[in-house]
Design goal:
This protein has helices spanning 2-16, 36-50, 65-75. With 85 residues, the chain is mainly alpha-helical.
Amino acid sequence: MGDHRAEVTKVVSDTFRLDPALVEPDATLEELGIDSKGRIRLLAALEIHYGVTIDLDRLDRFTDVASVADVLAEALGTGESEERR
């Protein structure tokens, strides 16, 4: 999971032009200034970056960097979900 957290931190930093040092794994997306539209933008950025499809139903789990990393792990087939397509 640690690898995905670092990767998600980079995608969040790049997508929203944030200093990576400020993007902590337990920082909520709201604290980072990422609203509901931003979460959709983040989901799209992850899908493009990794070539995966993440079900929009998972968007409600995008609460902090760590939870986004969990959803990404599932989409990549390294988690317990069947999100990989």
